[in-house]
């Protein structure tokens, strides 16, 4: 793949990951991505229709038990989501560009419409819990935007971060920003809210959950907020941690054999951080402690 199709080469840490749909005859797979795919296949097997039916039934039970909470949709959210995935669904646009870039809409429009959805999610959670007790943990990159802006708009005061990136060779998460949670602020009423827009794999979330449990934070004080969730990983999380509650706007049908959701959105992290400006980041600066802002700028704004 040539570099001239990229707006900013340094911003795309997943530029060579395989195209989301294996059934698309236009997909691009080089030797490296083929090796990654093979590793994925060895670690994850697509569920049979019978197995998937069992998982979906368990998700329905989780909804009844209020372990899994589906945020009510409306016209505004539906229209916002249609905008988010418009590029990916446009077969006239080239691959892999349309899965990792904003083409017919601007990055600002992607962030604005993503915020419409996350705003509804955070508002729903605030109806159930006192916002003074909610402590969001933004899982960088994708979890930071636009969840943090939605939490700020909801007047949530505490904001914590952790930076994780997936090693495409081992598929394991690599931590580049330690969890900034101040354990001294935790009370018996605190709710630690893990924010990550795509629950398509659970590696990042499981790493953060384990960190919280190591800090002696009770399982029932942990919440997860996500835009889209795959039933396979909801089942895995709730099977291992049944006291955790998940809040999501959309429940996907299933994962394909490359571990990608089938709702056709593309790479949320790449799209939501594309062409991010210092001016945009400066609006978040008052809500970031210590050197978090400097780390964020270094991560997202290439040096000239």
Give the helix/strand layout:
Layout: H1 31-43, H2 49-64, E1 68-70, H3 75-84, H4 86-89, H5 97-100, H6 107-128, E2 134-140, H7 147-153, E3 160-166, E4 173-177, E5 191-195, E6 198-199, H8 203-214, E7 222-229, H9 231-240, E8 245-251, H10 268-273, H11 278-282, H12 292-300
Parallel strand pairs: 1-8, 2-3, 2-5, 5-7, 6-7, 7-8
Antiparallel strand pairs: 3-4
Helix pairs in contact: 2-9, 3-6, 6-7
Task: Give an account of the 3D structure.
The chain is α/β, with parallel strands linked by helices. It has a single domain (52-300), classed as Rossmann fold, CATH 3.40.50.2020. 39% of the residues lie in helices and 14% in strands. The chain contains 12 helices and 8 strands. Strands 1, 2, 3, 4, 5, 6, 7 and 8 form an 8-stranded mixed beta sheet that branches. Helix 9 (231-240) links the parallel strand 7 (222-229) and strand 8 (245-251). Helix 2 crosses helix 9 (231-240), helix 3 runs antiparallel to helix 6 and helix 6 (107-128) packs across helix 7 (147-153). The longest helix has 22 residues, at 107-128. It is globular. Residues 1-32 have low confidence and may be disordered.
């Amino acid at each position: 793949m040539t570099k001239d199709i990229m707006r900013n080469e340094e911003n795309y840490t997943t530029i060579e990951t395989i195209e989301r749909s294996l059934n698309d005859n236009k997909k691009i797979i080089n030797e490296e991505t083929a090796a990654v795919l093979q590793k994925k296949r060895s670690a994850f097997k697509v569920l049979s229709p019978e197995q998937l039916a069992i998982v979906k039934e368990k998700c329905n039970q989780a909804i009844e038990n209020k372990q899994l909470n589906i945020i009510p949709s409306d016209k505004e959210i539906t229209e916002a989501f249609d905008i988010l995935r418009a590029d990916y669904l446009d077969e006239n646009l080239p691959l892999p560009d349309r899965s990792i870039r904003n083409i017919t809409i601007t990055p600002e429009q992607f962030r604005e419409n993503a915020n419409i959805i996350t705003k509804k999610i955070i508002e729903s959670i605030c109806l159930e819990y006192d916002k003074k007790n909610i402590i969001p943990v933004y899982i960088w990159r994708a979890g930071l935007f636009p969840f943090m802006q939605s939490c700020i708009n909801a007047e949530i005061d505490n904001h914590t971060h952790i930076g994780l990136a997936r090693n495409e060779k081992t598929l394991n998460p690599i931590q580049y920003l330690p969890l900034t949670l101040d354990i001294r602020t935790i009370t018996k009423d605190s709710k630690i809210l893990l924010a990550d827009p795509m629950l398509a794999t659970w590696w990042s979330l499981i790493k953060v959950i384990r960190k919280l449990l190591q800090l002696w934070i009770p399982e029932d004080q942990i919440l997860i907020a996500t835009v889209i969730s795959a039933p396979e990983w909801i089942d895995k999380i709730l099977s291992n941690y049944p006291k955790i509650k998940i809040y999501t706007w959309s429940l996907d049908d299933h994962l394909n054999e490359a571990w990608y959701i089938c709702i056709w959105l593309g790479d949320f992290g790449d799209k939501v951080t594309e062409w991010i400006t210092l001016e945009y980041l400066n609006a978040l600066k008052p809500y970031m402690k210590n050197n978090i802002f400097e780390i964020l700028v270094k991560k997202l704004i290439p040096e000239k």
